[in-house]
Amino acid sequence: MSAPGQATGEQSGAHTQPVPDSPGTRSVGAASRLDAVGGEGQGGRGRLRAAAGTGTVGSGGGLSAGRRGLWSRLDLYGSPYLFIAPFFVLFTAFGLFPLVYTAWVSLRAWDLTGDAGFVGLDNYSRLLADPDFWNALVNTLGLFVLATVPQLLLALIVAALLNRPIRALLLFRLGVLAPIVTSVAAVAIVFGQLYGRDTGLVNGILGLIGIDPIDWQASRTSSWIAVASMVNWRWTGYNALIYLAAIQAIPRDLYEAAQIDGAGAIRQFRSITVPLIRPALIFTVVMSTIGGMQLFTEPLLFGQGDVSGGSLRQFQTIAMYMFEQSFQNFDYGYGSAIAWMIFLLTVIVGVANALIGRRLRGGTQ
């Protein structure tokens, strides 16, 4: 009995072992695996195509990013030059070109009939030997001193007063602008009446204190005073506003500390205000130098349009002499030489002012 049982157990054990695949089964399984692999292959090819498509998009994005980087660099480094280009274009057209062209004309004999040819430095040699030029130079320097030094000192005092708490402060600040916006022709008419020889207000006031009437256009000194008063009246307020803006930028703590130390108003003005507004002082000195060396309108109107500056040329400036030679005598070559001399004198005086300012700054430090 045991043998059959054992046989039965062996048969049951044999049934638990894996049965080998038949050829048909193996073929079906292989086909299913191939389909799976094929599906994976198609998916792989799809992924490859997707990757290739992604790579194409990425290269296009890289080109776009490169263009954006190029435009960004152009905007960063090129836009500042674009913004300042209008100034240089206008300066070249209306500043540099006339300067160079005037220098070229000054080396030629050029009159109303046209260019007569190159003459070199003959116009400058003639200019240095011209007594009328030296007379105009003396008048220009004299008017420059009389119209610049009092003007800047008075402007500094006015700015200091306008910086104090007074009533109707805004009205006074606006009042100093009135001479700037007033027509030059109106200024000439008013000052012509003030300095009239027979009925002028100034001579009337002088007569009250026993001084005889003065013909303000007859002598050099009187005409210089009259013209300088016109210039001072017109430009003192402009410089005062510049000084006022510089004074208001000074910290109030410095004045409070000076008051605690016992410094008075004059000592504060001399030790705090003036040193701290030195850049504004230098700016106004330079601008006044340029304007003084090119003084033209005020003496011309004071002489009722006479470009010769009086019967004896007693208040003719270099700018007036240049105008006379160029547009009355039509000697454009000689007038251009005078214009270049004005430019050189302005540069020389400006450099002298800068050196003096640097020396004073070094002394105060």
UniProtKB/TrEMBL annotation:
**Ranges that cross the membrane:** 81-104, 141-162, 174-195, 276-296, 332-356
> Among the record's GO biological process terms, what is one?
transmembrane transport
Record domain ABC transmembrane type-1: where: 137-353
The UniProt entry, under InterPro entries, shows: ABC_transporter_permease, MetI-like, MetI-like_sf
Natural source organism:
Kribbella antiqua
Against Gene3D superfamilies, the record matches this protein to:
MetI-like
Q: Which Pfam families match?
A: BPD_transp_1
This chain belongs to which protein, by name? Cellobiose transport system permease protein
Per UniProt, the keywords (alphabetical) are: Cell membrane, Membrane, Transmembrane, Transmembrane helix, Transport
Subcellular location, record wording: Cell membrane
Instruction: Show the segment(s) annotated as Disordered.
Output: 1-30
Give any Gene Ontology cellular component: plasma membrane
Q: Which family does it belong to?
A: Belongs to the binding-protein-dependent transport system permease family.
Would you indicate the residue range of the signal peptide? none
CDD domains assigned to the protein according to its UniProt record, in alphabetical order = TM_PBP2 (cd06261)
Q: How does it sit in the membrane?
A: Multi-pass membrane protein
User: Is Cell membrane found in the keyword set?
Assistant: yes
